[in-house]
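Chapter review: from sequence to fold.
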Amino acid sequence: MAVMAYNDVMRQFRHRILPPNHPYTLFVKRVAKRLVQVSGLENLKWEFYVIDSPERNAFVLPGGKVFVFTGILPIVRNEDGMAAVLGHEIAHQLARHSAEKVSVTKIIFVLMLTLQLFGVDTSLLFNQFTLNYLMMSPFSRKCETEADVIGLQLMAQACFEPRESLEVWKRMSAIDKHEPPQFLSTHPSHKNRVERLAQEMPNALQKREDSDCSSEMQVFADMFRDARVRW
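The token string follows.
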């Protein structure tokens, strides 16, 4: 399934994937390298791609295949902002959210079969609205919130500035002024994301302070932070 999804994405965007030596690709990989080093998943065959498309999005496929759309670059603005986005995607892999989603789907399927054996008309209980908005959407929002929190810890441990994650979501909120109500969405609202990240910020700042950030890495990070990539 993971291989099929990867092949589908590569086929769909084959003419839009930027080359490995493109500045945007190098920028993403540079940030990703530091996050992967603290993720505990260094042995996973990570691959990072940048898709030249205006969507303000990024996603990860099982197996560590991460795709970033150029449309999100003006929002992240710098390495710390990109670390917030990539940390979130790496956190999905770390928390095995894809596997959890498959498990939830299987549980729902088994429950439907069991109820049908007892003569219950499951078409009323498990219609598209129920599955999407009362079951899968809350689960998806839970996974997204968990990825936000884990991603915040990852970026702090990798010596990025965790407070930049708040700015990323504030900028996203300013652009997406007509986002759907949270209960209709698979993601938490931007407002709720900012509030939750703010709650977790003291822990993230402490983790950054406690992390073994060598002077060389700090100089490296500050150098690129000062020379921000602008789009």
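Two observations follow directly from the output. The CA atoms of residues 118 and 223 lie 66 Å apart. Residues 2-226 form one domain.
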